[in-house]
Amino acid sequence: MANTYVGAIDQGTTGTRFMVFDHSGQVVANDYEKHEQIYPNPGWVEHDPVEIWENTQEVVQNGLKHAGIDASQLEALGITNQRETTIVWDKESGKPVHNALVWQDRRTTDRVEELEDEDKVDWIRGKTGLEADAYFSATKTEWILDNAEPLKLDHARTDSLRTRAADGELLVGTIDAWLIYNLTGNHITDVTNASRTMLYNIHDLEWDDELLEEFNVPENMLPEVRPSSDTEYYGHTDADGFLGEEIPVAGALGDQQAALFGQTCFDAGDAKNTYGTGSFYLMNTGNEAVESDHGLLTTIGFQMSGEPVQYALEGSIFVTGAAIEWLEDVDLINNAAQTAELARSVDSTDGVYMVPAFTGLGAPHWDGRARGTIVGMTRGTGKEHLVRATLESIAYQTRDIAEAMEADSGVDTTTLRVDGGAVKNNFLCQLQSDIIQTDIARPQVDETTALGSAYAAGLAVGYWDNIDQLRSNWQVDREFEPEMESDEADQLYSKWGEAVDRSLDWAQEE
Protein backbone atom coordinates (compact mmCIF):
# COMPACT_ATOMS: atom_id res chain seq x y z
CA MET A 1 0.00 0.00 0.00
CA ALA A 2 3.01 2.31 0.40
CA ASN A 3 3.01 3.25 -3.29
CA THR A 4 -0.71 3.73 -3.68
CA TYR A 5 -2.69 6.93 -3.35
CA VAL A 6 -6.13 8.52 -3.49
CA GLY A 7 -7.00 11.13 -6.10
CA ALA A 8 -9.38 14.07 -5.73
CA ILE A 9 -11.07 16.04 -8.49
CA ASP A 10 -11.85 19.51 -7.13
CA GLN A 11 -14.13 21.21 -9.64
CA GLY A 12 -14.43 24.82 -8.49
CA THR A 13 -16.03 28.04 -9.67
CA THR A 14 -13.00 29.38 -11.52
CA GLY A 15 -11.20 26.17 -12.43
CA THR A 16 -10.60 22.46 -11.97
CA ARG A 17 -7.88 20.98 -9.79
CA PHE A 18 -6.65 17.41 -9.44
CA MET A 19 -4.71 16.43 -6.34
CA VAL A 20 -3.27 13.14 -5.16
CA PHE A 21 -2.77 12.39 -1.46
CA ASP A 22 -0.77 9.78 0.42
CA HIS A 23 -1.58 8.05 3.72
CA SER A 24 -0.42 11.01 5.79
CA GLY A 25 -2.71 13.37 3.88
CA GLN A 26 0.20 15.06 2.10
CA VAL A 27 -0.07 16.27 -1.50
CA VAL A 28 1.97 14.23 -3.97
CA ALA A 29 0.44 15.53 -7.22
CA ASN A 30 -1.35 18.73 -8.19
CA ASP A 31 -2.56 20.23 -11.45
CA TYR A 32 -4.99 23.06 -12.22
CA GLU A 33 -6.80 24.54 -15.21
CA LYS A 34 -9.06 27.58 -15.36
CA HIS A 35 -12.28 27.65 -17.37
CA GLU A 36 -14.16 30.53 -18.96
CA GLN A 37 -16.59 32.66 -16.97
CA ILE A 38 -19.56 33.51 -19.21
CA TYR A 39 -21.68 36.59 -18.43
CA PRO A 40 -24.54 36.78 -20.97
CA ASN A 41 -26.37 39.55 -19.05
CA PRO A 42 -25.85 41.52 -15.83
CA GLY A 43 -26.22 39.13 -12.89
CA TRP A 44 -26.05 36.04 -15.13
CA VAL A 45 -23.11 33.61 -14.77
CA GLU A 46 -22.59 30.48 -16.87
CA HIS A 47 -19.97 27.77 -17.45
CA ASP A 48 -19.52 25.40 -20.39
CA PRO A 49 -19.99 21.84 -18.99
CA VAL A 50 -18.07 20.31 -21.90
CA GLU A 51 -15.08 22.56 -21.20
CA ILE A 52 -15.22 21.52 -17.54
CA TRP A 53 -15.21 17.81 -18.43
CA GLU A 54 -12.36 18.29 -20.91
CA ASN A 55 -10.36 20.22 -18.31
CA THR A 56 -11.04 17.51 -15.74
CA GLN A 57 -9.51 14.86 -17.98
CA GLU A 58 -6.55 17.13 -18.70
CA VAL A 59 -5.70 17.96 -15.08
CA VAL A 60 -6.02 14.31 -13.99
CA GLN A 61 -3.66 13.14 -16.73
CA ASN A 62 -1.20 16.01 -16.26
CA GLY A 63 -1.21 15.70 -12.48
CA LEU A 64 -0.34 12.01 -12.64
CA LYS A 65 2.25 12.53 -15.37
CA HIS A 66 4.10 15.37 -13.62
CA ALA A 67 4.24 13.38 -10.37
CA GLY A 68 5.39 10.18 -12.09
CA ILE A 69 2.33 8.29 -10.82
CA ASP A 70 0.55 5.64 -12.87
CA ALA A 71 -3.27 5.57 -12.80
CA SER A 72 -3.06 1.99 -11.51
CA GLN A 73 -1.58 3.38 -8.27
CA LEU A 74 -4.85 5.16 -7.46
CA GLU A 75 -6.92 3.21 -4.93
CA ALA A 76 -9.93 5.51 -5.42
CA LEU A 77 -11.17 8.82 -6.77
CA GLY A 78 -13.14 11.39 -4.81
CA ILE A 79 -15.01 14.37 -6.20
CA THR A 80 -15.74 17.77 -4.76
CA ASN A 81 -17.48 20.54 -6.60
CA GLN A 82 -18.91 24.02 -6.73
CA ARG A 83 -22.36 23.43 -5.30
CA GLU A 84 -25.76 24.50 -6.68
CA THR A 85 -24.34 25.04 -10.20
CA THR A 86 -26.83 23.21 -12.42
CA ILE A 87 -26.55 21.25 -15.67
CA VAL A 88 -29.29 19.64 -17.76
CA TRP A 89 -28.09 17.13 -20.34
CA ASP A 90 -29.41 14.70 -22.92
CA LYS A 91 -29.58 11.17 -21.50
CA GLU A 92 -28.62 9.35 -24.69
CA SER A 93 -25.86 11.59 -26.09
CA GLY A 94 -24.59 13.00 -22.80
CA LYS A 95 -24.57 16.49 -24.32
CA PRO A 96 -25.70 19.50 -22.26
CA VAL A 97 -28.81 21.30 -23.48
CA HIS A 98 -27.53 24.64 -22.16
CA ASN A 99 -24.54 26.07 -20.36
CA ALA A 100 -24.39 25.37 -16.63
CA LEU A 101 -26.12 28.03 -14.53
CA VAL A 102 -23.58 28.90 -11.85
CA TRP A 103 -24.44 29.24 -8.17
CA GLN A 104 -23.74 32.98 -8.44
CA ASP A 105 -26.34 33.41 -11.19
CA ARG A 106 -29.22 35.74 -10.23
CA ARG A 107 -31.51 35.43 -13.27
CA THR A 108 -34.25 33.69 -11.26
CA THR A 109 -34.57 36.44 -8.62
CA ASP A 110 -38.07 37.30 -9.91
CA ARG A 111 -39.14 33.69 -9.40
CA VAL A 112 -37.84 33.73 -5.84
CA GLU A 113 -39.79 36.91 -5.17
CA GLU A 114 -42.92 35.11 -6.40
CA LEU A 115 -42.26 32.44 -3.77
CA GLU A 116 -41.90 35.17 -1.15
CA ASP A 117 -45.17 36.79 -2.25
CA GLU A 118 -46.90 33.39 -2.02
CA ASP A 119 -45.60 32.92 1.58
CA LYS A 120 -43.70 29.78 0.60
CA VAL A 121 -40.35 30.73 2.16
CA ASP A 122 -40.95 29.04 5.53
CA TRP A 123 -42.43 26.01 3.77
CA ILE A 124 -39.27 25.61 1.68
CA ARG A 125 -36.98 26.21 4.65
CA GLY A 126 -38.85 23.62 6.71
CA LYS A 127 -38.19 20.92 4.12
CA THR A 128 -34.74 21.88 2.84
CA GLY A 129 -33.10 24.01 5.54
CA LEU A 130 -32.48 26.61 2.83
CA GLU A 131 -33.60 30.16 2.20
CA ALA A 132 -35.67 30.60 -0.94
CA ASP A 133 -32.98 32.07 -3.16
CA ALA A 134 -31.77 32.09 -6.76
CA TYR A 135 -28.52 30.61 -5.38
CA PHE A 136 -29.95 27.08 -5.31
CA SER A 137 -30.60 24.60 -8.11
CA ALA A 138 -34.42 24.39 -8.14
CA THR A 139 -35.14 27.69 -9.89
CA LYS A 140 -32.12 27.19 -12.17
CA THR A 141 -33.47 23.84 -13.37
CA GLU A 142 -36.90 25.38 -13.87
CA TRP A 143 -35.39 28.23 -15.91
CA ILE A 144 -33.42 25.91 -18.19
CA LEU A 145 -36.45 23.73 -18.92
CA ASP A 146 -38.60 26.79 -19.64
CA ASN A 147 -36.11 28.94 -21.53
CA ALA A 148 -33.23 27.01 -23.10
CA GLU A 149 -33.34 26.30 -26.82
CA PRO A 150 -34.13 22.59 -27.37
CA LEU A 151 -31.06 20.61 -28.37
CA LYS A 152 -31.43 19.22 -31.89
CA LEU A 153 -29.95 15.74 -32.04
CA ASP A 154 -30.32 13.09 -34.75
CA HIS A 155 -31.98 10.62 -32.41
CA ALA A 156 -34.15 13.11 -30.54
CA ARG A 157 -37.36 14.91 -31.25
CA THR A 158 -37.19 18.68 -31.26
CA ASP A 159 -40.02 18.87 -28.75
CA SER A 160 -39.79 21.36 -25.93
CA LEU A 161 -37.39 20.58 -23.13
CA ARG A 162 -40.40 20.29 -20.82
CA THR A 163 -41.83 17.50 -22.97
CA ARG A 164 -38.49 15.75 -23.31
CA ALA A 165 -37.89 15.97 -19.54
CA ALA A 166 -41.31 14.45 -18.83
CA ASP A 167 -40.54 11.64 -21.29
CA GLY A 168 -37.32 10.77 -19.47
CA GLU A 169 -34.95 12.00 -22.16
CA LEU A 170 -33.11 14.56 -19.99
CA LEU A 171 -31.02 14.37 -16.83
CA VAL A 172 -30.19 17.12 -14.34
CA GLY A 173 -27.51 17.40 -11.73
CA THR A 174 -24.94 19.49 -9.97
CA ILE A 175 -21.33 19.33 -11.13
CA ASP A 176 -20.55 16.22 -9.05
CA ALA A 177 -23.32 14.32 -10.83
CA TRP A 178 -22.04 15.55 -14.21
CA LEU A 179 -18.52 14.30 -13.45
CA ILE A 180 -19.69 10.99 -11.96
CA TYR A 181 -21.84 10.45 -15.06
CA ASN A 182 -18.90 11.11 -17.39
CA LEU A 183 -16.49 9.03 -15.31
CA THR A 184 -18.72 6.00 -14.65
CA GLY A 185 -21.86 6.27 -16.78
CA ASN A 186 -24.02 6.34 -13.63
CA HIS A 187 -26.38 9.14 -12.59
CA ILE A 188 -25.52 9.66 -8.92
CA THR A 189 -25.09 12.51 -6.45
CA ASP A 190 -24.31 12.54 -2.75
CA VAL A 191 -26.46 13.77 0.13
CA THR A 192 -24.53 17.02 0.60
CA ASN A 193 -25.02 18.12 -2.99
CA ALA A 194 -28.65 16.98 -3.00
CA SER A 195 -29.22 19.11 0.08
CA ARG A 196 -28.24 22.24 -1.92
CA THR A 197 -30.78 21.85 -4.69
CA MET A 198 -33.88 23.16 -2.83
CA LEU A 199 -35.56 19.96 -4.06
CA TYR A 200 -34.35 17.53 -1.37
CA ASN A 201 -35.98 16.99 2.00
CA ILE A 202 -33.08 16.92 4.47
CA HIS A 203 -35.22 15.33 7.20
CA ASP A 204 -36.79 12.53 5.15
CA LEU A 205 -33.62 12.16 3.05
CA GLU A 206 -35.41 11.97 -0.29
CA TRP A 207 -36.41 14.11 -3.24
CA ASP A 208 -39.50 16.00 -2.12
CA ASP A 209 -42.61 15.41 -4.25
CA GLU A 210 -44.19 18.75 -3.33
CA LEU A 211 -41.06 20.71 -4.22
CA LEU A 212 -40.68 18.80 -7.49
CA GLU A 213 -44.26 19.78 -8.30
CA GLU A 214 -43.66 23.42 -7.33
CA PHE A 215 -40.72 23.75 -9.70
CA ASN A 216 -42.08 21.30 -12.30
CA VAL A 217 -39.02 19.05 -12.19
CA PRO A 218 -39.75 15.40 -13.12
CA GLU A 219 -38.19 13.01 -10.61
CA ASN A 220 -36.87 10.81 -13.42
CA MET A 221 -34.40 13.61 -14.29
CA LEU A 222 -32.79 13.50 -10.86
CA PRO A 223 -29.78 11.45 -9.77
CA GLU A 224 -29.80 8.69 -7.18
CA VAL A 225 -28.69 10.06 -3.80
CA ARG A 226 -25.90 8.16 -2.04
CA PRO A 227 -23.69 8.62 1.07
CA SER A 228 -20.72 11.01 0.79
CA SER A 229 -18.35 8.11 1.51
CA ASP A 230 -19.83 5.06 -0.18
CA THR A 231 -18.49 1.54 0.37
CA GLU A 232 -20.73 0.37 -2.50
CA TYR A 233 -18.99 2.89 -4.80
CA TYR A 234 -20.65 5.19 -7.35
CA GLY A 235 -19.02 3.19 -10.13
CA HIS A 236 -15.63 2.71 -11.78
CA THR A 237 -13.78 4.58 -14.46
CA ASP A 238 -13.74 2.85 -17.84
CA ALA A 239 -10.68 0.69 -18.47
CA ASP A 240 -10.91 1.83 -22.11
CA GLY A 241 -11.33 5.50 -21.11
CA PHE A 242 -8.86 8.33 -20.64
CA LEU A 243 -7.23 6.77 -17.54
CA GLY A 244 -6.95 3.26 -18.94
CA GLU A 245 -7.84 1.77 -15.54
CA GLU A 246 -10.93 0.74 -13.58
CA ILE A 247 -10.68 3.01 -10.53
CA PRO A 248 -13.48 3.16 -7.93
CA VAL A 249 -15.25 6.51 -7.68
CA ALA A 250 -16.31 6.24 -4.06
CA GLY A 251 -16.66 9.65 -2.44
CA ALA A 252 -18.25 13.01 -3.19
CA LEU A 253 -19.07 16.12 -1.21
CA GLY A 254 -20.03 19.65 -2.12
CA ASP A 255 -16.95 21.81 -1.77
CA GLN A 256 -17.82 23.37 1.58
CA GLN A 257 -18.79 20.08 3.18
CA ALA A 258 -15.61 18.58 1.74
CA ALA A 259 -13.60 21.29 3.50
CA LEU A 260 -15.46 20.51 6.75
CA PHE A 261 -14.48 16.86 6.28
CA GLY A 262 -10.90 17.71 5.31
CA GLN A 263 -10.55 19.91 8.39
CA THR A 264 -11.61 16.81 10.40
CA CYS A 265 -14.62 18.64 11.85
CA PHE A 266 -16.25 15.33 12.70
CA ASP A 267 -17.81 16.33 16.04
CA ALA A 268 -20.71 18.62 16.96
CA GLY A 269 -19.39 22.15 17.56
CA ASP A 270 -16.39 21.85 15.20
CA ALA A 271 -16.30 24.79 12.77
CA LYS A 272 -14.35 25.90 9.69
CA ASN A 273 -14.39 28.77 7.22
CA THR A 274 -13.26 28.34 3.61
CA TYR A 275 -12.08 31.42 1.72
CA GLY A 276 -12.51 30.85 -1.99
CA THR A 277 -14.53 32.72 -4.61
CA GLY A 278 -16.99 33.15 -1.76
CA SER A 279 -16.60 32.16 1.87
CA PHE A 280 -18.48 29.45 3.66
CA TYR A 281 -18.56 29.05 7.41
CA LEU A 282 -19.84 25.65 8.58
CA MET A 283 -20.39 24.24 12.04
CA ASN A 284 -21.05 20.54 12.59
CA THR A 285 -24.27 20.11 14.62
CA GLY A 286 -24.14 16.30 14.78
CA ASN A 287 -27.29 14.27 14.08
CA GLU A 288 -29.53 17.26 14.79
CA ALA A 289 -30.71 19.57 12.02
CA VAL A 290 -30.57 22.87 13.93
CA GLU A 291 -32.99 25.46 12.59
CA SER A 292 -31.59 28.96 12.26
CA ASP A 293 -33.29 32.11 13.52
CA HIS A 294 -30.49 34.33 12.22
CA GLY A 295 -30.33 33.85 8.46
CA LEU A 296 -28.12 30.75 8.36
CA LEU A 297 -28.77 27.59 6.36
CA THR A 298 -29.36 24.14 7.80
CA THR A 299 -27.63 21.66 5.55
CA ILE A 300 -26.21 18.15 5.46
CA GLY A 301 -22.56 18.07 6.52
CA PHE A 302 -21.73 14.52 5.38
CA GLN A 303 -22.80 10.89 5.59
CA MET A 304 -20.67 7.79 5.94
CA SER A 305 -21.89 4.43 4.63
CA GLY A 306 -24.29 2.79 7.04
CA GLU A 307 -24.33 5.78 9.40
CA PRO A 308 -26.86 8.58 9.98
CA VAL A 309 -26.24 11.93 8.31
CA GLN A 310 -24.39 14.64 10.19
CA TYR A 311 -25.92 18.09 9.79
CA ALA A 312 -24.32 21.52 9.78
CA LEU A 313 -25.23 25.17 10.13
CA GLU A 314 -23.84 27.22 7.26
CA GLY A 315 -23.23 30.87 6.58
CA SER A 316 -22.84 31.41 2.83
CA ILE A 317 -20.97 34.54 1.73
CA PHE A 318 -21.20 34.97 -2.03
CA VAL A 319 -18.14 37.17 -2.69
CA THR A 320 -14.81 37.22 -0.85
CA GLY A 321 -11.95 35.95 -3.03
CA ALA A 322 -13.89 37.18 -6.05
CA ALA A 323 -13.60 40.70 -4.61
CA ILE A 324 -9.81 40.38 -4.76
CA GLU A 325 -10.13 39.18 -8.37
CA TRP A 326 -12.19 42.30 -9.05
CA LEU A 327 -9.37 44.50 -7.70
CA GLU A 328 -7.14 42.82 -10.27
CA ASP A 329 -9.73 43.17 -13.04
CA VAL A 330 -9.90 46.95 -12.54
CA ASP A 331 -6.08 47.23 -12.28
CA LEU A 332 -5.90 48.29 -8.64
CA ILE A 333 -3.52 45.36 -8.06
CA ASN A 334 -1.34 43.21 -10.31
CA ASN A 335 -1.87 40.00 -8.35
CA ALA A 336 -3.54 38.77 -5.18
CA ALA A 337 -0.26 38.61 -3.27
CA GLN A 338 0.06 42.40 -3.60
CA THR A 339 -3.00 43.02 -1.42
CA ALA A 340 -1.18 42.42 1.88
CA GLU A 341 1.62 44.83 1.01
CA LEU A 342 -0.78 47.58 -0.07
CA ALA A 343 -3.09 47.08 2.91
CA ARG A 344 -0.17 47.26 5.34
CA SER A 345 1.03 50.52 3.78
CA VAL A 346 -1.80 52.40 5.54
CA ASP A 347 -2.93 52.26 9.16
CA SER A 348 -6.63 52.13 8.25
CA THR A 349 -9.05 52.58 5.37
CA ASP A 350 -9.64 56.21 6.43
CA GLY A 351 -13.31 55.41 6.88
CA VAL A 352 -13.79 53.64 3.54
CA TYR A 353 -16.00 50.52 3.49
CA MET A 354 -16.42 48.21 0.53
CA VAL A 355 -19.46 45.89 0.40
CA PRO A 356 -18.71 43.30 -2.34
CA ALA A 357 -22.34 42.47 -3.11
CA PHE A 358 -21.60 41.83 -6.80
CA THR A 359 -24.08 38.95 -6.93
CA GLY A 360 -26.31 40.02 -4.07
CA LEU A 361 -25.76 39.25 -0.39
CA GLY A 362 -26.04 35.80 1.15
CA ALA A 363 -26.20 35.00 4.85
CA PRO A 364 -27.39 36.54 7.05
CA HIS A 365 -28.93 39.26 4.83
CA TRP A 366 -30.27 37.26 1.85
CA ASP A 367 -30.82 40.15 -0.52
CA GLY A 368 -30.52 39.12 -4.15
CA ARG A 369 -30.87 42.75 -5.26
CA ALA A 370 -28.01 44.12 -3.16
CA ARG A 371 -25.06 45.29 -5.24
CA GLY A 372 -21.42 46.18 -4.73
CA THR A 373 -20.98 49.45 -2.87
CA ILE A 374 -18.05 51.63 -1.78
CA VAL A 375 -18.80 54.32 0.81
CA GLY A 376 -16.77 56.84 2.78
CA MET A 377 -14.37 57.94 0.03
CA THR A 378 -12.73 61.37 0.06
CA ARG A 379 -10.33 63.10 -2.31
CA GLY A 380 -7.53 61.59 -0.23
CA THR A 381 -8.66 57.99 -0.78
CA GLY A 382 -6.01 55.95 -2.58
CA LYS A 383 -5.94 52.46 -4.00
CA GLU A 384 -4.28 51.19 -0.83
CA HIS A 385 -7.37 52.26 1.14
CA LEU A 386 -9.66 50.48 -1.33
CA VAL A 387 -7.54 47.33 -1.18
CA ARG A 388 -7.53 47.36 2.62
CA ALA A 389 -11.29 47.98 2.66
CA THR A 390 -11.76 44.95 0.40
CA LEU A 391 -9.76 42.70 2.73
CA GLU A 392 -11.66 44.10 5.71
CA SER A 393 -14.97 43.30 3.97
CA ILE A 394 -14.00 39.62 4.01
CA ALA A 395 -13.40 39.81 7.75
CA TYR A 396 -16.61 41.74 8.43
CA GLN A 397 -18.76 39.33 6.44
CA THR A 398 -17.24 36.46 8.40
CA ARG A 399 -18.08 38.21 11.67
CA ASP A 400 -21.68 38.56 10.44
CA ILE A 401 -21.76 34.76 10.21
CA ALA A 402 -19.83 34.08 13.41
CA GLU A 403 -22.32 36.13 15.44
CA ALA A 404 -25.30 34.42 13.80
CA MET A 405 -23.68 31.01 14.35
CA GLU A 406 -23.16 31.64 18.06
CA ALA A 407 -26.71 32.94 18.46
CA ASP A 408 -28.22 29.87 16.78
CA SER A 409 -26.01 27.20 18.32
CA GLY A 410 -25.38 28.71 21.75
CA VAL A 411 -21.72 27.73 21.27
CA ASP A 412 -18.98 30.37 21.47
CA THR A 413 -16.30 29.81 18.84
CA THR A 414 -12.89 29.63 20.51
CA THR A 415 -10.84 28.63 17.47
CA LEU A 416 -11.85 28.85 13.81
CA ARG A 417 -10.16 26.49 11.35
CA VAL A 418 -9.57 28.25 8.02
CA ASP A 419 -8.65 27.08 4.55
CA GLY A 420 -8.76 28.10 0.91
CA GLY A 421 -6.49 30.19 -1.29
CA ALA A 422 -6.95 33.48 0.54
CA VAL A 423 -5.65 32.16 3.88
CA LYS A 424 -2.11 32.15 2.49
CA ASN A 425 -2.40 35.90 3.15
CA ASN A 426 -1.09 36.39 6.71
CA PHE A 427 -2.44 39.93 6.84
CA LEU A 428 -5.96 38.66 6.13
CA CYS A 429 -5.68 35.90 8.73
CA GLN A 430 -4.54 38.36 11.40
CA LEU A 431 -7.24 40.84 10.38
CA GLN A 432 -9.84 38.07 10.59
CA SER A 433 -8.68 37.15 14.09
CA ASP A 434 -8.87 40.82 15.14
CA ILE A 435 -12.33 41.50 13.71
CA ILE A 436 -14.06 38.42 15.15
CA GLN A 437 -11.88 38.39 18.28
CA THR A 438 -11.20 34.66 17.89
CA ASP A 439 -8.10 32.52 17.40
CA ILE A 440 -7.54 31.40 13.81
CA ALA A 441 -5.89 28.05 13.00
CA ARG A 442 -4.46 27.50 9.52
CA PRO A 443 -3.57 23.89 8.69
CA GLN A 444 -0.43 22.76 6.88
CA VAL A 445 -2.52 21.38 4.01
CA ASP A 446 -4.82 24.29 3.19
CA GLU A 447 -6.40 22.64 0.13
CA THR A 448 -8.77 20.90 2.52
CA THR A 449 -11.61 20.81 -0.02
CA ALA A 450 -9.74 18.33 -2.21
CA LEU A 451 -8.40 16.56 0.88
CA GLY A 452 -11.93 16.05 2.26
CA SER A 453 -13.15 14.34 -0.90
CA ALA A 454 -10.01 12.18 -0.94
CA TYR A 455 -10.66 11.20 2.68
CA ALA A 456 -14.27 10.27 1.84
CA ALA A 457 -13.23 8.09 -1.11
CA GLY A 458 -10.25 6.60 0.75
CA LEU A 459 -12.35 5.60 3.75
CA ALA A 460 -14.84 3.90 1.43
CA VAL A 461 -12.18 1.65 -0.10
CA GLY A 462 -10.25 1.03 3.13
CA TYR A 463 -7.22 3.20 2.25
CA TRP A 464 -7.72 4.84 5.65
CA ASP A 465 -9.15 2.69 8.43
CA ASN A 466 -11.20 5.26 10.34
CA ILE A 467 -11.66 8.95 11.07
CA ASP A 468 -9.24 8.83 14.02
CA GLN A 469 -6.49 8.14 11.51
CA LEU A 470 -7.54 11.30 9.64
CA ARG A 471 -7.57 13.38 12.81
CA SER A 472 -3.93 12.48 13.42
CA ASN A 473 -3.07 13.82 9.94
CA TRP A 474 -4.36 17.32 10.74
CA GLN A 475 -1.46 19.64 11.57
CA VAL A 476 -1.44 23.39 12.30
CA ASP A 477 0.74 25.57 10.07
CA ARG A 478 0.17 28.79 12.03
CA GLU A 479 -2.22 30.23 14.59
CA PHE A 480 -3.30 33.85 14.81
CA GLU A 481 -4.55 35.51 18.00
CA PRO A 482 -6.41 38.85 18.27
CA GLU A 483 -4.07 41.83 18.54
CA MET A 484 -6.76 44.51 18.25
CA GLU A 485 -8.70 45.66 21.32
CA SER A 486 -12.28 44.39 21.31
CA ASP A 487 -13.69 47.95 21.59
CA GLU A 488 -11.89 48.99 18.41
CA ALA A 489 -13.08 45.85 16.57
CA ASP A 490 -16.66 46.53 17.68
CA GLN A 491 -16.49 50.14 16.51
CA LEU A 492 -15.17 49.21 13.06
CA TYR A 493 -17.79 46.48 12.76
CA SER A 494 -20.68 48.79 13.69
CA LYS A 495 -19.92 51.03 10.70
CA TRP A 496 -19.85 47.94 8.47
CA GLY A 497 -23.55 47.42 9.20
CA GLU A 498 -24.29 50.95 8.00
CA ALA A 499 -22.39 50.32 4.77
CA VAL A 500 -24.32 47.08 4.18
CA ASP A 501 -27.61 48.98 4.61
CA ARG A 502 -26.64 51.25 1.72
CA SER A 503 -26.05 48.28 -0.62
CA LEU A 504 -29.43 46.62 -0.08
CA ASP A 505 -32.26 46.41 -2.64
CA TRP A 506 -30.27 48.32 -5.28
CA ALA A 507 -30.80 46.35 -8.52
CA GLN A 508 -34.48 47.10 -9.08
CA GLU A 509 -34.15 47.16 -12.84
CA GLU A 510 -32.97 43.53 -13.15
TrEMBL record:
PROSITE patterns: FGGY_KINASES_2 (PS00445)
Listed InterPro entries: ATPase_NBD, Carb_kinase_FGGY, Carb_kinase_FGGY_CS, FGGY_C, FGGY_N, Glycerol_kin
GO CC annotations on file: cytosol
Involved pathway(s): Polyol metabolism; glycerol degradation via glycerol kinase pathway; sn-glycerol 3-phosphate from glycerol: step 1/1
Gene3D superfamilies recorded: 3.30.420.40
Binding site for ADP: 13, 17, 277, 321, 421, 425
Gene Ontology MF term list: ATP binding; glycerol kinase activity
Residues that hold ATP according to the record: 13-14, 277, 321, 421
CDD domains: ASKHA_NBD_FGGY_GK
Catalytic activity: glycerol + ATP = sn-glycerol 3-phosphate + ADP + H(+)
Keywords: ATP-binding, Glycerol metabolism, Kinase, Nucleotide-binding, Transferase
Residues engaged in binding glycerol: 83-84, 135, 255-256
An example Gene Ontology biological process: glycerol catabolic process
Segments forming domain Carbohydrate kinase FGGY C-terminal: 272-460
Residues that bind sn-glycerol 3-phosphate: 13, 83-84, 135, 255
Carbohydrate kinase FGGY N-terminal domain location: 5-262
Pfam families: FGGY_C, FGGY_N
Function: Key enzyme in the regulation of glycerol uptake and metabolism. Catalyzes the phosphorylation of glycerol to yield sn-glycerol 3-phosphate.
Stated family: Belongs to the FGGY kinase family.
Protein's name according to its UniProt entry: Glycerol kinase
Primary gene name: glpK
